[in-house]
Amino acid sequence: MAKKKLITSSKPTKAQAEQFDMLFPILESVFNEIKELSKKKQDGALNEIKVKMTNRILTKVKAILNDDPTLEFLDLLDEDTLPTNSDAVLIIAQFKAAMEQYKEKHFGWDGLDHAWTTSD
After folding, report:
1. Of the candidates 80, 93, 16, 86, which has an alpha carbon nearest to the alpha carbon of residue 52?
2. By three-state DSSP, how is residue 22 classified?
3. What region does 118 belong to: left with phi over 0, alpha with psi -120 to 50, or beta?
4. Which of 4, 54, 62, 63 shows its CA 20 to 30 Å from the CA of 71?
5. Given a cut of 60, is residue 7 above it in pLDDT?
6. Mean pLDDT calculated for residue range 74-91
7. Against a cut of 0.85, is the pTM above it?
8. What is the CA 111 to chain-centroid distance, rounded?
9. Which residues, 6 or more positions from 43, have their beta carbon under 8 angstroms from its beta carbon?
10. How far apart are CA 54 and CA 5, in angstroms?
11. What are the residue ranges spanned by the domains of the chain?
12. Helical H runs in the chain?
């Protein structure tokens, strides 16, 4: 039995879908890298460069998820009080989960191929 999709946000534009497809692998890479750091030293603080680079990605993800209900649960990494590796893993995991839910809502079989369901 096929899963019924529950659409609770507006459809993405083609540009948002392309941006999503570009950002998701980058986010996964950052997540995996920081997760490895966390395994070695959970309470170690991320350095300022890693926080700024990660926030640049997370900011673009938030723009894609702008109309999605998950947005209210997504916070950027705090640049003033550098987060620990384990805190960063938690925050990035939330972004990753929100993106996966977003794709599940708006990407699927269109009768010919797997594709985004876009507004344009």
Report:
1. 80
2. helix
3. beta
4. 4
5. no
6. 97
7. yes
8. 27
9. 84, 85, 86
10. 30
11. 14-105
12. 14-40, 48-64, 85-106
